[in-house]
Every structure is written in C-alpha cells, then in structure tokens.
C-alpha cells in the first residue's frame, strides 16, 4: 500500500513538472516583429522539487530519530 502511494505521488509530481504554465516559443500568426524576447517558463517545477526534497529530508531525519529512540 505504501508503494502505491509513493508511485501516485511521483506521477502527480511528474505531471505537474511537465505541464508548462505558459508556452510562447512561437511567433503568433500576423505578428511580424516587435518584442524579440520569448516567454519561457524557467521556474516550472523548481519550487516543487525543492519542497519535495525538504519533505524527504525531514522524513528521513524523523525516521532516523525514531530508530535511535528504539535502540535506547
């Protein structure tokens, strides 16, 4: 059951990471010039990855402390 929850969480994180919020890499039809900058979402999933890493670290620290308490 625990493996099922982990797989579900990983699939959800992957779906969120690979779904861009805004994609404007192509020039719209009829727009021959103007702003040469393209909008590229560089911060698509960095925040989610950082949050997941922090949560994983906290979980591992909690498990380590729990094992240390059980040994005493």
Strand segment tally: 0
CA gyration radius, whole angstroms:
21 Å
Please give the oligomerization state of what you see: single chain
Largest sheet: none
Which structural class matches the secondary elements?
mainly alpha
Instruction: Give the N-to-C terminal Cα separation.
Output: 30 Å
The overall pLDDT, averaged over residues, is 78
Write a concise keyword list for the protein shown above:
single chain, 72 residues, mainly alpha, 2 helices, 0% strand
Could you give the topology of this structure?
Elements: H1 2-17, H2 46-71
Give the gist of this structure:
By secondary structure, this protein is mainly α.
Could you walk me through the main structural features you see in this protein, from its secondary elements to its overall organization?
- With 72 residues, this protein is mainly alpha-helical.
- The chain has one domain (2-23, 40-71).
- The protein contains two helices and no strands.
- The chain has helices at 2-17, 46-71.
- The radius of gyration is 21 Å and the shape is elongated.
- The two termini are 30 Å apart.
């Amino acid at each position: 059951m625990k493996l099922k929850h982990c797989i579900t969480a990983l699939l959800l994180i992957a779906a969120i990471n690979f779904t861009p919020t805004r994609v404007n890499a192509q020039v719209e039809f009829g727009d021959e010039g103007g702003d040469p900058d393209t909008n590229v979402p560089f911060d698509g999933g960095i925040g989610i990855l950082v949050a997941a890493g922090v949560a994983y670290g906290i979980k591992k620290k909690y498990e380590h402390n729990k094992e240390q308490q059980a040994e005493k």
